[in-house]
Amino acid sequence: MKKLLLIATSLFLSYSIYAQTDDDDLKAMFDDGNISTSKNVLKINSLAWPAGDLPIHYERVLLEVLSVEVGVGYILDMETIEIQIPYEDRVGSKGNGYSLWVNPRLFLTGNAPEGYYMGMLYRRRAYSFEYTYNDYVIINGIQSPFAKGRFMVDFMYGFGLRFVDSGLYQSSLPSFNKMRMVFPTSVKLGYKF
Questions:
Q1: Which of 16, 66, 117, 139 is the most exposed place for a label (fewest CB within 10 A)?
Q2: Half-sphere exposure of residue 172, counting CA atoms within 13 Å on the CB side?
Q3: What's the CA gap between 136 and 45, in Å, rounded?
Q4: 125 close to 75: Cβ distance less than 8 angstroms
Q5: What pLDDT, on the 0 to 100 scale, is given for residue 176?
Q6: Contacts of 50 (CB under 8 A, 6+ apart)
Q7: Rounded CA gap, 183 and 86, in Å?
Q8: Contact 167, 132 (CB under 8 A)
């Protein structure tokens, strides 16, 4: 009986010690430096820079499947080409200005901020020569980590309406004097923290 009690105690103590060591090894093996629990992403829009819009975007995870992205930027005084209907050759030089983005996102696959998402985008661009564009857009996109998980790439496309506000603006089509269809796209590179 004493031998059985001694064997049972030895097995129990050795199992407890092994379990602690095993748990620590698992923690060390799966430690990602808190990348998987990061709720913030700071991004730049690589397609906007050549067009003279220099925005910086910040995305914050609110819930497991919901995030909000906001962005602000400085617009340079230069002519740009955009996809819009009715089509105009160039948006034209309107002076310097600023851009503002607000973009709530619902993630359909994965947990925010990674996976396929849909959302609404409000974008405002105000220029010094009395032009203001207000875009209301339905967007789709996918955001994915690369390079050990800290860096993100975000591909987004959408369609929506642009409302032009300017006393100087004259359109060739009077019925669409203040409204355009727009098809924005972006490729953003970000850092998750």
A1: 16
A2: 5
A3: 18
A4: yes
A5: 45
A6: none
A7: 12
A8: no
Q: Are strands 132-146 and 179-182 parallel, antiparallel or unpaired?
A: unpaired
* Whole-angstrom distance, CA of residue 24 vs CA of residue 1: 35
Picking from 137, 68, 136, the residue whose alpha carbon sits closest to that of residue 105 is 68
Q: Show the tokens assigned to 171.
A: 């359109």
Task: Tell me what percent of the residues of the chain surpass a pLDDT of 70.
Answer: 67
With CA atoms as reference, report the closest residue to 132 among 104, 82, 103, 169. Answer: 169
What confidence tier does 175 reach under pLDDT thresholds 50, 70, 90?
Answer: very low
Tell me which residue of 108, 105, 165, 164 sits closest to 138, measured CA to CA: 105
Rounded-to-integer distance, Cα 63 and Cα 135, Å? 26
pLDDT at 125 over 70: yes
Count of alpha carbons within 13 angstroms of residue 166, beta-carbon side: 20
For 64, phi and psi rounded to 5 degrees?
-60, -30
Q: What confidence score (pLDDT) does residue 167 get?
A: 54
Distance separating alpha carbons of residues 53 and 80, to the nearest angstrom? 10
Per-residue model confidence as pLDDT tens digits over 97-119:
999 999 999 999 989 999 999 99
pTM greater than 0.85 (yes/no): no
Q: Higher model confidence: residue 33 or residue 56?
A: 56
Q: Which residues pair with 144 in a beta bridge?
A: 153
